[in-house]
Design brief:
It is a single chain. The chain has one helix at 53-63; strands at 30-32, 39-43. The mean pLDDT is 77. The chain has a two-stranded antiparallel sheet. The chain is an alpha+beta fold and 67 residues long. The radius of gyration is 19 Å and the shape is globular. The protein contains 1 helix and 2 strands.
Length: 67
Amino acid sequence: MDEPNQRDEPQEPYCGTPAAAPVAADGPPFAECVLCRKPTEYPESVKGATLCPVCEWQEAQRTACSG
């Protein structure tokens, strides 16, 4: 017999899907990283918090799901 607390429906994932990354720029001027002020891969016209590849990777490590 099935256990009373077992669900047959799919469960929601614990972590949400990350937002789509902005499109990389073809050339300068590049946006400045909001953490270290180094150039990013994104054009200056990108809205929001732009991060350089190093800070983006470090931020992903900090916010990654464990388990």
